[in-house]
Amino acid sequence: MGVMMLIWLKSAGRWLRRVVSPSDSAWTAAAYALLTLWGLLLVSFVFSDGATEFTWESTLGLTVLFGLMALVSVALLFTAWLLGALKLRYRAALLLCLPPISLVLLLSWGAKGLIALPVFVMTVSLLFGAGAALIRPGIPRSRSIGSWVFFAVGVALAGLSGYVLLKPAPELNAALSGYHLRDHTLDLRDPSKPGPYGVKIFTYGSGVDRHRPEYAGGVAFRSKSVDGSKLDLKWTGLGGWVRSRYWGFGPDRFPVQGRVWMPVPEGIKLDEGEEDRQPLDWSIVLTDAEGAEARLPLSHDQLLYPQIKNYTRRFGAISSTPSSEVVMRRYCFPLKDFVAVNPRLDLKRLRSIRFDFDRTQRGVIALDDVGLMGGP
User: Fold this and answer.
1) Whole-number Å distance between alpha carbons of 81 and 85
2) CA separation (Å) from 211 to 155, 162, 208, 315?
3) Which parts of 136-221 fold into alpha helices (H)?
4) Is residue 297 within 8 Å of residue 281, measured between CB atoms?
5) Which position among 49, 106, 200, 345 has the lowest Cβ density within 10 Å, counted as fewest Cβ atoms?
6) CA–CA distance, 115 with 350 (Å, rounded to integer)
7) Which pTM value belongs to this model?
């Protein structure tokens, strides 16, 4: 019975392979379809900006670009061949570990994690693989030499990785590393407190920008481009060609653009959009059982600015990254400051704490962890 079942399973397996395996014509048609797609992508790269005059620089740039992509294809083929040459148990373990290791390294180091990934995998594999071979009794001399070499390479990679991880970070500004503000401050008003002026915010630029709307149709003033080819000497070759394709201008047509925060005197009404970018402020009011109250503005501690919304450079159809996010800030108001405003306030008989939205006409706030904290 068992032999018959085994024969039936093998027959079913052969039938399943015949059913699901594509025919030669199917493989050929799929290959031609991918080659056609490759040709269409080549045409789109050449004519993405419409009919343009071909120069030796653009031709060389396209040739190098597609040559690099061809090298990537060769590397992928080599990787597939190499995976097929590995032992099944190691290949399964490698493919099982790669996704979580890649995620951890990307979250820790960003793009540098992609460089650390093969180094990390090779270090672990060489150390433990060659180490296990060395401690195995009866290993031939020819194999022991190779094992010692691989183990030494693993130790060297581990030492290099440890040095990169543990070395102290360089000082970002060595000139200010030993500078202290003590006895170097000026007797001036706190610049973090609100002043008497509003703030007018606008942008200026060329009015044509592929990736930043605030410098395209959102500019308040249009400026002329300048020739900066003598300032940026690295905007050349393949890298310069790619940058020009991405931004839509070259070093000889740099846009003059910027974002301006301009003070506005009292009495001048701000536009609706500018009002939404002003600091938010309201009053915190404490009341005791006798009805005595004291109030302090939120800006008594620090200013609260609204969210700064910006445009990411990712393709919107495939990116869910929001243009801004809520960043919480901590505010602390000592009770003695309220007593200083109104000495009649009895903190032992405190009855209510409320917010009076009496300073900013409109806005949205997010509150969390509001409460009283005891002193030392």
Assistant:
1) 6
2) 47, 40, 9, 10
3) 141-166
4) yes
5) 49
6) 60
7) 0.38
Q: How are strands ordered across the β-sheet holding 221-222?
A: 221-222, 198-205, 258-264
For tokens 């543990």, name the residue.
166
Residue bearing tokens 């379809």? 33
Instruction: For residue 8, count other CB atoms closer than 10 A to its CB.
Output: 10
Q: What is the DSSP letter of 176?
A: G
Structure tokens at 333: 């108001």
Is 288 in contact with 349 (CB distance < 8 Å)? yes
Question: Three-class SS of residue 26?
Answer: helix
* CA-wise closest residue to 301 among 331, 280, 265: 331
pLDDT for residue 128: 85
pLDDT along the chain (376 residues), means of 10: 68 67 76 83 67 65 80 84 81 85 81 80 84 76 74 84 76 68 69 72 84 82 88 81 82 88 70 62 88 87 70 50 71 87 88 85 77 68
Looking at residue 36, what is its pLDDT? 87
Report whether 277 contacts 360 (CB < 8 A): no
In single-letter form, the type of residue at position 274 comes to E
Q: Tokens standing for 59?
A: 């031709």
Half-sphere exposure at residue 10, Cβ-oriented, CA atoms within 13 angstroms: 5
Show me where the domains of the chain are located.
Answer: 65-163, 193-277, 279-371
